[in-house]
Amino acid sequence: MSYSSFELLDHSRPIVVFGRDGQVGRALQICLKDLKVPTVFLGRADCDLTSESSIVEVLNRYQPQVIINAAAYTAVDKAEAERDLAFAINAKAPELIARYIANVAHGILVHYSTDYVFADTSQTAYLETDIAGPLEQLSAYGQSKLAGEQAIEEAFNLAHDSGNAKCQDGLPRYLILRTSWVYGDGENFIQKILRLAAKHAQLEIVNDQIGVPTSADWLAKMSMQMIDSNIESGIYHVVPDGETSWHGLAVLAIEAAIAQGECLDAKPENVIPIPTVEYSMKVRRPYNSRLNNTKLKKALSSVSFTEKYPEWQDQVRAYIKENVVKFLSMGMVGESH
Ligand SMILES: NC(=O)c1ccc[n+]([C@@H]2O[C@H](COP(=O)([O-])OP(=O)(O)OC[C@H]3O[C@@H](n4cnc5c(N)ncnc54)[C@H](OP(=O)(O)O)[C@@H]3O)[C@@H](O)[C@H]2O)c1
Predict the structure, then answer these.
(1) RmlD-like substrate binding domain spans which residues (predicted)?
(2) 5-187+213-242+289-312 has which fold?
(3) Residue with the nearest Cα to atom 40 of ligand 1?
(4) How far is the CA of 73 from the centre of ligand 1 (A)?
(5) Ligand 1 center from residue 211 Cα (angstroms)
(6) Which pLDDT score is estimated for 235?
(7) Cα 267 to Cα 256: distance, rounded to the nearest angstrom
(8) Is-contact 176 235, C-beta < 8 A?
(9) What gap in Å lies between CA 114 and CA 146, rounded to an integer?
C-alpha cells in the first residue's frame, strides 16, 4: 500500500506515535517503516502520559503535524481500583493532545477507542450514532475511554467555534477509531488459547459474549489509509466483517493451528461452550461488543478504496499461519510435546 498524501506533509515535522510498545503501536512501527515522512515512536519512558509537563515538552520538541495515539490504560480489571490513573491516561492525555492538534498544529489526530463504551443497550451491532453508556453500567475502563472520546470531540469543536482551527485542506482533523478484540504482537486471547490448548485436553470458553476479532496489523494499515484519504473527522468503527463469540474464536484458532501441523492436546470439539455466568470475572464485560463498520466502508468507497474488505476469520488464519512457529519457538504452543 502506498500513501501518497503523506508525501505532501511538512517533512520538517515528524509524525508522533504514542504507545510504541503496545500491540497497535508495534503494528504501526511496521506499517510506517517505509514512509518517507520522519516518524517518532514514543514509549512510556519517553513520554509519561500521566504527566502534563511531559506531554507538553514532547509536543514542543517535535511539533508534530500528525499524532497517532495508540497508548492507553488497558488493564480493564485493575482500572476499577486505579480509576484516576485510567482517566489520566485515557481521557486527560488525549484532551491535551487534541487541543494541540486542533489549536496549534492544525493537523491530524488518530486515537483508538473501544466497544467498552457501550453497555449492552442493543442486541445488534452498534452504529457510531448510537448513544454510548449508560455511564453507570460501564466499567471504569469503558468510562475513561468514553471520556477520552468526548474530550477530543470537545477540543476540536471548541477550536472550531473560537476560530482557532484555521480550516483548510480538511485540517485540522480527528479520527477516533473504535475497535474490538485486538490481537497482534503482544499478549492476547489467541495466544492464550493456543498455549492452553497445548497443555489441556479440554477447554471451557464463554460463548455468549459476541464481538469482532481485529488484527492490529490491519488496524494500523486502516489508520494510515484513513489519514491518507482525507476521510472527514469523526468516530469510526474499524473492525473486519463478521462476528463471533470467544468460543467461536477459540475453535477457529485451534483449527488454524492444527491446519499448520501443530499437535495440540485440545481438539476443536473439546472446546466446551459455557455461559458468562459460569466464568468468574472481576469486571462486567459487554455481552454485545459488535461494532457496525458500514460508515467506514462508505467513507472508504468514497475515496475509491478498492481493496477487498476482510472477514475476521481470514485475518485470524493468516495471523496464526504467520506466528504459530514463533509461538512454538517461544515455548508457547506445543510446549508439552
Ligand atoms: N487490545 C484490545 O483488545 C483493544 C480493544 C479495543 C480497543 N483497544 C484500544 O486500542 C488502543 C491500543 O491498544 P493495545 O491493545 O495496543 O494496548 P496495549 O498493548 O495495552 O498498549 C498500550 C500502550 O500504552 C502504553 N501506556 C500505558 N500507560 C502509559 C503512560 N502512562 N504513558 C505512556 N504510555 C503508556 C503502554 O506502555 P507500556 O508498554 O510501557 O506498558 C503500552 O505500550 C487503545 O486505545 C485501546 O483502548 C484495544
Answers:
(1) 15-322
(2) Rossmann fold (3.40.50)
(3) 44
(4) 6
(5) 19
(6) 98
(7) 11
(8) yes
(9) 8
CB atoms under 10 Å from CB of 282, counted, come to 10
Residue 114 CB–ligand 1 contact under 6 Å: yes
**Active-site annotation holds for 141:** yes
How far apart are alpha carbons 79 and 278 in whole angstroms? Answer: 23
Per-residue H/E/C for 105-154: HCCEEEEEEEHHHECCCCCCCECCCCCCECHHHCCHHHHHHHHHHHHHHH
As a whole number, the mean pLDDT across the chain is 92
Given 141, 174, 183, 319, which residue is catalytic? 141
In the reported structure, the alpha carbon of residue 127 is separated from the centroid of ligand 1 by a whole-number distance in angstroms of 24
Q: What is the CA radius of gyration of the chain?
A: 20
Mean pLDDT of 199-212: 96
Q: Is the pLDDT of residue 55 over 50?
A: yes
For the Cβ of 90 lying below 6 angstroms from any atom of ligand 1, the answer is no
Number of neighbouring beta carbons within 10 Å of residue 304? 7
Indicate the domain borders of the chain. 5-187+213-242+289-312
pLDDT band at residue 303 using 50, 70 and 90 as cut-offs: confident
How far apart are the C-alpha atoms of 33 and 17, rounded to whole Å?
12
